[in-house]
């Protein structure tokens, strides 16, 4: 099975990109007895660093990720200019390099992708990036011309939306429910646009797992339905998946929890994951964005993009003239860690993250149930990601029509201001909303909180103070 030729969906900018002439001859540098005088590549002896040392922990990470590091569970290594085997030597990682990324790290990620995802075709490629924000920017430039449109979730990551809007791209919201994008509504929207002779969007952009801001995780069945619609209307799906491995155990009330959760084998853990859109991609119309930001460290600024080879060739032309390749320090340190953990050790790390984030999610929801007014609040208990949302029907405010002029955003602003006055902060849902022109705001508003960013005592105080602010705005007594 081979992917479809989707070159007709490329932007004018992508079609016009030429290969770098300077990059075309760099491979001669390693030819024996060759006088390579073509590139401005400094000698490694002129680099400021001779070695970089790092310390991490050893699989299987027993005791949890918050356990104190000891000599027994610590793994230390040093990457030098001439390191071999388990490392990318600094003489290579700190040098100018090819846009597709360092070969050892790419090979690890390719094997990881084969272990986790079952891509139905063979002609796919993977390239390293500096994270999903940069990858998303590259997707827009590769597929969209100014005045094109893209389909996005009704509530989506505001920075991603700003990235698209600043390039003159029109955002078309997709209706969602508590399980994510509604396939029937999506198909109806596309059918009506086509019937009216309107230009169809080129891209479906979504955060399918642990969606930011809602925490929604789209089921495998619904992903397949959405993929079939994308195929029918000839769209590219860009799945932005930084939270993919933060799929959590279901929330249960404290009184119903057991003393411990079942320990999964690595195979059971992978089988429990909701499948990627890649798993259904028989035509090569999925571009997947992955990142180490949420599973290793945000400041690593290292991610990767996976898609069919013909599309990747256009992405690489973009990378050659923009960021070129991710940070050599990040590449060496992350690969040095992963090569020592191995594929199974990395999965052990991801399993440990599930335990940690499930525990913190549980506490966040427990605190919400304890401190928020039950009659007003609707609390989601996400099955993935870092975020939870609390919703309120502003029409229930006793002064909704008089004091707030029936404006839900005015109530939202009042809650936000009261929360800050109480020395806490959650983010208003309207900051993430993508609205059709002239669409009236819903009377139901929400606030996004995270259980990832703070210690437990701060998490509890923040939710308690948020509850106090809501009561003040709704004139409720403790």
From TrEMBL:
InterPro entries (alphabetical): Aminotransferase_I/II_large (IPR004839), Class-I_PLP-dep_aminotransf (IPR050859), PyrdxlP-dep_Trfase (IPR015424), PyrdxlP-dep_Trfase_major (IPR015421)
Any one of the GO CC terms: cytoplasm
Domain of life: Eukaryota
Cell compartment(s), UniProt: Cytoplasm
Residue stretches in coiled coil: none
GO molecular function: 2-aminoadipate transaminase activity; aromatic-amino-acid transaminase activity; pyridoxal phosphate binding
Primary localization: cytoplasm
Record SUPFAM superfamilies: PLP-dependent transferases (SSF53383)
Protein keywords: Aminotransferase, Cytoplasm, Pyridoxal phosphate, Transferase
Enzyme class: transferase
Biological processes, Gene Ontology terms: aromatic amino acid family catabolic process; lysine biosynthetic process via aminoadipic acid; tyrosine biosynthetic process
Catalytic activity: an aromatic L-alpha-amino acid + 2-oxoglutarate = an aromatic oxo-acid + L-glutamate
Pfam families: Aminotran_1_2 (PF00155)
Domain (Aminotransferase class I/classII large) ranges: 105-465
CC cofactor: pyridoxal 5'-phosphate
EC id: 2.6.1.57
Similarity-based family: Belongs to the class-I pyridoxal-phosphate-dependent aminotransferase family.
Record protein name field: aromatic-amino-acid transaminase
């Amino acid at each position: 099975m081979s992917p479809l030729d989707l070159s007709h969906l490329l932007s004018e900018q992508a079609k016009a990109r030429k290969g770098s002439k300077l990059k075309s001859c760099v491979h001669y540098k390693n030819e024996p007895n060759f006088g390579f005088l073509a590139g401005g590549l400094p000698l490694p002896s002129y680099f400021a660093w001779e070695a970089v040392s790092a310390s991490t922990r050893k699989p299987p990470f027993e005791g949890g990720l918050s356990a104190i590091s000891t000599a027994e569970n610590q793994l230390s290594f040093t990457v030098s200019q001439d390191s071999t085997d388990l490392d990318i030597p600094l003489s290579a990682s700190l040098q100018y390099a090819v846009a597709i990324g360092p070969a050892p790290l790419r090979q690890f990620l390719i094997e990881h992708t084969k272990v986790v995802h079952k891509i139905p075709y063979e002609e796919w490629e993977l390239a390293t990036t500096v994270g999903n924000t940069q990858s998303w920017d590259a997707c827009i430039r590769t597929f969209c011309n100014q005045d094109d449109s893209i389909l996005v979730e009704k509530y989506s990551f505001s920075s991603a939306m700003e990235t698209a809007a600043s390039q003159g791209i029109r955002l078309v919201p997709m209706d969602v429910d508590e399980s994510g994008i509604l396939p029937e509504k999506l198909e109806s929207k596309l059918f009506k646009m086509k019937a009216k002779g309107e230009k169809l969007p080129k891209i479906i952009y979504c955060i399918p797992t642990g969606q930011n801001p809602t925490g929604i995780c789209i089921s495998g069945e619904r992903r397949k339905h959405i993929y079939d619609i994308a195929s029918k209307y000839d769209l590219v799906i860009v799945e932005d998946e930084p939270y993919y491995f933060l799929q959590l155990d279901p929330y249960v009330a404290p009184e119903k929890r057991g003393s411990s959760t079942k320990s999964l084998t690595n195979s059971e853990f992978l089988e429990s994951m909701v499948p990627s859109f890649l798993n259904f991609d028989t035509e090569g119309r999925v571009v997947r964005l992955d990142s180490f930001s949420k599973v290793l460290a945000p400041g690593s600024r290292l991610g990767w993009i996976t898609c069919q080879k013909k599309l990747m060739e256009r992405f690489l032309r973009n990378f050659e003239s923009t960021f070129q390749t991710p940070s050599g320090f990040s590449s060496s340190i992350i690969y040095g860690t992963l090569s020592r953990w191995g594929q199974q050790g990395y999965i052990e790390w991801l399993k440990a993250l599930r335990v940690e984030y499930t525990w913190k999610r549980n506490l966040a929801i427990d605190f919400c149930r304890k401190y928020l007014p039950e009659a007003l609040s609707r609390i989601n208990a996400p099955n993935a990601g870092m975020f939870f949302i609390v919703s309120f029907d502003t029409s229930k405010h006793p002064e909704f029509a008089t004091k707030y002029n029936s404006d839900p955003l005015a109530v939202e602003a009042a809650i936000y201001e009261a929360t800050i006055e109480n020395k806490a902060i959650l983010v208003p849902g309207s900051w993430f909303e993508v609205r059709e022109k002239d669409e009236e705001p819903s009377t139901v508003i929400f606030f996004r909180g995270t259980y990832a960013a703070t210690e437990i005592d701060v998490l509890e105080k923040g939710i308690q103070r948020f509850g106090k602010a809501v009561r003040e705005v709704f004139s409720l007594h403790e």
